[in-house]
Amino acid sequence: MGNLHKHRVMIAVGFFILAVILHEIGALLFVSNGVSEYIIDLAIISVIVIMISFMFKETDETAEELQKNRQRLNNIFDTLDVAIWSHDLKSDILLITPGIEKLYGYSLDEFYQDHTLWKRVIHPEDVNILAEREQSFLRGEPITNVYRIIRSDGEVRWIQDRGIPTVDENGNLSDFNSVLFDITDRKESEDRYRSLVEMSPDIIAVYSRGQIDYINEAGSKLFGAASQQELIGQPIWKLVAPAILEQIKHRELTLDENFDEKMTFEFQARRLDDKRIDVEITAMPIFYEGRTAKQIVGRDISQRKQAEKTIQYMAYYDGLTGLPNRNMFKKHLNEVLNERKNQMLAVLFLDLDRFKIINDTKGHAVGDLLLKLVAKRLGLAVQNDGVVSRQGGDEFIILLEDTDKEKAVNVAQRMLDEFSHSFEINSQEIFVTTSIGISIYPVDGEDEETLLKNADTAMYLAKERGKNNFQFYTDQLHLLSSRKLELENGLRKALEQEQLVLYYQPQVELKTGKIVGVESLIRWQHSDHGFISPDEFIPLAEETGLIVPLGKWVLRKACEQNKKWQQQGYKAIPIAVNISVRQLQDDDFVELVKKVLNETGLDPRYLELEITESIMQNIDRSENILNQLKDLGIKISIDDFGTGYSSLSYLKHLPIDGIKIDKSFVDDIINHSNQGAMVKTMIDMGHNLNFTVIAEGIENQEQVAFLKKNACKIGQGYYYSKPLAPDEMEKLLTNDDAPKSIPIK
Ligand code: C2E
Ligand code: MG
Ligand code: MG
């Protein structure tokens, strides 16, 4: 073989090697971007073929020119971060490009001297690739391996090694080429990304042709798979229902407006165990393994969705009873009004009677339970005839659609009937009734606001008419509700503008007619309405909570007045002050009493608090407060005794000084067939328990005689005196030196 020919062969080999390198670089650069490997190869082969044919045409090239070409080729190899190993096994010519020095840190000579050096520097953990490689070469198949090597300086690098064997016609390996790249940087950045993807708490997945190409661990866990492999290769409909996929396709669920770049969707996916989870997914087109695919990043938003649902629920439903709330009622009624104008509607406004007392005395927990039970019973009564909603507090509204007056009466009556039997709470029986007001569309109002207001007004009429009944709205009714509103507002002003005064009614020793105490009774002189009875405005004050400041005022005023009388030289007698249960519930009540006594200088012996039997409903708390009050040295008596629920046996547990027998029993002395038997029993039992017994509302001599005969010592009533203004009262008071008694008529 002539020199020229030898050079030509070498250059041809060089070109072949160049082709291989270009192929690898092309693959590295372009395949990940989706360009087909074959297109790259085709381009490279065309270039090489043109170059080789050009070279063979130049037959009279000189050795010098060839030497130059060879040098040029070497220079190309030098600039590439790549090494080529080309071994012609037949001629045993080994060619290694100098790039190998850069990759391995060993000199070219060392590789020429020791053909196994490359094997020996393979990282011990990666040597297993050698066997695989050998197998592949024996079959004449190219193989690409990625393994680590340990450089001469000890540094570990990643090498990508593509080996291409050539097999001759006899099936023997004739030559062998290997292209080696240092891919450490790429590998490290790949590893970094891989760990980011793997460790991400978000779902990261790739999806193409209707199936899952890749999903990370977080994703596979979220969908309930035991491993990533369980999902990879699976059809997407396993996780996303076809209907949702359809919606996604039509972008009906798209949150992101930026369609071309990426899209964000929110939908319900299903786990492998068929449970639903809310997910938010962002999808973006990518190339994956040479084809278009979707890169998906997403997260579980079930908690957020739940929170949104809760907020929505809270906005439209009542948390305690689960019934629709006022907002929902309004929304619904407005919708109904807008839709069908030709039907009759009824709005039933329902308010529990005496609920405030139950709540104040039994505690809010019991109150809440009662409201829940009430909600249930209302549901039973109304059934499918209407919608029950809770307006707030102890108020409920029922909307009847397509109805008439008769049907409304039926539903209202069914509801009243439901309340005729007791509610059982904590194994206690609680009786509660309800008052219902009804307004009818379109006669009583054409909009939601008017209908509701008028039903509310009608409800007040039901209260006025003795509670536990229902009333329809009539045009005259607005007068009633406006009075209530006016009084409520007026009461606040009354406190500030001193329209309130205290009157005093003497308590008299029946035997002597001597005044032994006074009861303070509040009076409201309204600028427009004249005198307003405490029976009307005290419940209003209790309802609104105004009783607390009002009660404070009464307590102070009464103590001041009593102290003043004492300072004026009148005989010291106790003054009784009426206290509402609501006041006793106030945490500061005991402190308030202490403070008022201090500031007015009244000796606690001369203050008596009148409370009603309703305190018995929360006996533990009451006992505690009453004990604290007793410790201050004041007296406590039970007002209107006999009208409440208490039995005397209960009372004996409480630190009580006296009972005031209610006027209704005193009336019985003369009216009723039992001839005051009840009063007699009360007096006896009261004395047995060492209580002072006062008879209230004595209006005539007959009653006095009966009471005296039955050993009742003290009485109070118009027979002796009506409640009096302070100056009137003074006329009846005595001083120690000149004892005076009320002249008995
Ligand atoms: P009460 O504490 O049982 O007061 C007795 C009521 O019976 C008083 O009515 C009194 O005027 C009336 N009365 C007394 N003797 C007779 C009689 O012989 N015949 C008749 N027909 N009535 C008689 P008043 O002043 O209208 O008070 C009504 C209720 O208002 C009181 O009943 C009490 O529960 C409440 N109240 C009055 N002042 C206050 C107050 O300052 N605070 C609180 N929380 N409640 C008060
Ligand atoms: Mg009283
Ligand atoms: Mg009373």
From TrEMBL:
Domain PAS: 69-141, 189-262
Coiled coil: 56-83
This protein's UniProt keywords: Coiled coil, Membrane, Transmembrane, Transmembrane helix
Superkingdom field: Bacteria
Domain PAC, first and last residues per copy: 143-195
EAL domain segment(s): 484-737
Record domain GGDEF: where: 343-475
Matches recorded under PROSITE patterns: EAL, GGDEF, PAC, PAS
InterPro entries in the cross-refs: Biofilm_reg_signaling, EAL_dom, EAL_sf, GGDEF_dom, Nucleotide_cyclase, PAC, PAS, PAS-assoc_C
Transmembrane segments: 12-32, 38-56
Entry keyword Mitochondrion: no
SMART domains the record matches: EAL, GGDEF, PAC, PAS
Gene3D superfamilies: 3.30.70.270, EAL domain, PAS domain
Pfam families documented for this protein: EAL (PF00563), GGDEF (PF00990), PAS_3 (PF08447), PAS_9 (PF13426)
The protein's name in its UniProt record: GGDEF domain-containing protein
